[in-house]
Amino acid sequence: MAEDSATDRRTFLSAVGGAAAAAMAGCTGDGTPTDPTSTTAPPSSSTDVSTPEGGPQPGGTLRVGFESELTGLDPHRTESVVSWVVVFNVCETLITFEDGAPAGRLATDWEIGEDGRTYTFTLTEDARFHPPVDRGMTAEDVVYSFERMNQDGAMGSDLAAVEAVEATGEYEVTFTLAETFAPFFNFLGRVPWVIVPEEAVEEQGGDLGEFQEPVGTGPFQFDEHEPGDHLTLTAFDDYRADDVPLLDAVEITPIPDADSRVSALRGGDVDMVRGVGGSDADVVRNDAETKLSRQRGTEWGQLHINCSEPPWDDPAVRRAVAHAMDRGAIVDAAVSGYGQPAWQPYAEESVWHYDLGDSRRTHDPERARQILDDAGNPLESETLTIKTNTRYGLMETTAELLVAQLAQAGIDAETEVLEWGTQLSDFVGGNFGAMAFSVPFKIDPDRHYYGFIHPEGTQFNHYGEDQPDAQRMYELLEQGRSETDRDERVEIYSEFEKLVNEHCPWISVARADGLAGLRADVYGVQPWLLPYTRFWTMWTED
Amino acid sequence: MVSRLQAFLIRRLLWALPVLALVSVAIFGLIRLVPGDPAIVMLGADAPPAQLAAVRAELGLDEPLPVQYVDYVADAVRGDLGRSYVDDREVSAAIASRLPTTLFLTAAGFLVSLTIAIPAGLLSATNRGEWLDGVGLGFGLLGVSVPNFWLGVVLLLLFGVTLDWLPVAGYVSPLEDPVAGIRYLLLPGITLGTAMAAVVTRMLRSELLEELRREYLNAVRMKGVGELRVLTHATKNAFIPVVTVIGMQFGYLLGGSIVVETVFSIPGMGRLLIDAIQSRDYIMLQGVVLVYTTFFVAVNIVVDGAYFYLNPKLGGER
């Protein structure tokens, strides 16, 4: 790429920084806020503030209880968050996010072409693959990894815009996109976009899904995995950064039952547990031997609506339901206050947050009645059905409370409780009027909105052209994708949020916090908005 | 020359074949009747259609049902239960690695229950109407009423957290480290065995009471035999129906282990089953359920055999 055709790194940072700032905005400290009764303590810092005298100590094994069984460890084909956590500690992405901005991981520098279609990454020359591969990583490994993960179009639309991945030097990789695609850069900080060595993959069979003993360049190396029992990671001695990782090993045990997980932590059987429920959070926080790590807004709950299904195709019905909903009550009941009522996925401190002001559809049963009256009572002799499941507490509570809240506004409704797999199939197949749903937080707004609305996406909300401002909303989503200037994108998504609030193709309910429990002598946890626990910053006093 | 017992067992084994065949149809059919596309559950709502299609093809879900079934049975008979879609493990290997754990847990529950039930039943029956009997009866009622998932959590909080005497989660094989193994198995064993202990206590008590009222015991007593010997005679006879109950309960222990393994995070077959259900790992699920049912059938045959052995006159009929 010619010098003059490339924008400098700073310009690029401003283009994507907003997303990363949003990602980091909710980070808290070690989760022991000064006011133990406060459930909405403001974020303090992204590092563990309770470091004792003497500073970090190397050595020791951290025993961690995971919220579910590991479902496959092939870095390029894992389907669960817990598997991502393992992969993220063993293998590395090109970039990551630190202190509110994209930061290098395997890439030390990058440039984006003026046309927004070429991304050139300069790679570190010090990255080494774990034994038995035991060699330096080069640009060819990056090319190989991206070809492997996307074989037979496995990455779908995420990589559809990528025309070519080329090694333009021993330590330089260039991605060429067929068209500008703003969310692309932020993907690169996540699993499965990690770099692996071809020889190790081939050794284990080669096919996607067969690389179950991952080898990478990360601070920890895979040691052994006894499915259901434990997985052990050990420190990679040749890791390129000094004093990283601090721990000698991490031993992971799946403890799927939430009560047992918290008991295991309190009983000292493990040093850390992921996935603490809101109802257990105060127990962990108030126990002298344990502490709570809290990350605000890792999950976004909403009422998904099929806008082509009567009576939900009537915007007045959707607006009335939005006013009947008491979000605060749902947050209190579903996550014991460890979350926030939300009218959009992005919190106030995020650049993607749009201040709706007084237009926000707050809890107002009278207003709900009025809207229906004005629309000629479309819900007379109608019973609304809210689909939900019992596997995910936020969804279950949202549906149950909403039915009661709708009754207060004179709207007859019922829940239909489904098995999770059935609900998911109904969601994808459009077989629903409304359903309580939730999705993990996503850094880039495109990842949330495009699939919900746009006809070329999955269009889960079936927001057809006959719906108000449909064409404008499609256009905004297209622009949000292709525009690479951050400020422009903020404008675009602000207008989009305004229209969502107006026409309610879905109704945002809450942002739930991600909670982890720690023994009192565990330090260095850095919660962030991505669901990956980074073990390499952690240490224990023991 | 086959003995009557052998003939009986062979007959029972032959009967087991159609049962297992029926079971295989049921497992195969039920899993596929559940609405919801496993490919979507595995890959998530926003998975690209091409990938969904690839998964369906890999699972054989795009084949007609009879073809899928014949493939499944043909492989299963050869001991090939397929490979897990989720993590590419061989199902039979996964089961083989989990089976000993579940068997140890079940054995622990079995041991706990008999250790409690036999003395409790005997004491209750021989002290009829007294406070000891009240304790036995009370235990018999409480034990069957308390759900094991609740009992497990309470034991775990009491002994694992508050008193901190025993480990809360995980498992160590008693073969590798007997002391640690027993420590890990104690709470799950009690949780699992309590319900069975209660059932067996009540059963033993009532059978023994009935037996103690029988005429022949008076004749024994008149011959000058001591009360302890009388009790031994009575107990031996009372045990015949109790053995049946114990055998049937053993099957329930296998079922109960699913819950207990989840509560205590024990990596046994039960956890394998729950994980397979949650991730809709059809192939794993089929294999695990098949092994569970095979065990049930096998336990029943063993119980019938034991019954026949104890009382050949009955010809194995209960």
TrEMBL record, chain A:
GO terms for cellular component: ATP-binding cassette (ABC) transporter complex; periplasmic space. The keyword Ribonucleoprotein does not apply. It comes from the Archaea. One of its GO terms (biological process) is peptide transport. SUPFAM superfamilies: Periplasmic binding protein-like II. Residues 103-454 form the Solute-binding protein family domain. The keyword 4Fe-4S does not apply. PROSITE patterns: TAT. Residues 24-52 have a biased composition (Low complexity). Transmembrane segments: none annotated. Keywords: Signal, Transport. It holds the Pfam family SBP_bac_5. GO terms for molecular function: peptide transmembrane transporter activity. Residues 24-61 are annotated as: Disordered. Belongs to the bacterial solute-binding protein 5 family. This is Peptide/nickel transport system substrate-binding protein.
From TrEMBL, chain B:
One of its GO terms (cellular component) is plasma membrane. It is a multi-pass membrane protein. The chain crosses the membrane at residues 12-34, 103-123, 135-161, 181-204, 238-260, 289-310. Keywords: Cell membrane, Membrane, Transmembrane, Transmembrane helix, Transport. Pfam families: BPD_transp_1, BPD_transp_1_N. It is found in: Cell membrane. PROSITE patterns: ABC_TM1. InterPro entries: BPD_transp_1_N, MetI-like, MetI-like_sf. Residues 99-303 form the ABC transmembrane type-1 domain. GO terms for biological process: transmembrane transport. Its main location: membrane. Belongs to the binding-protein-dependent transport system permease family. This is Peptide/nickel transport system permease protein. It comes from Halolamina pelagica.
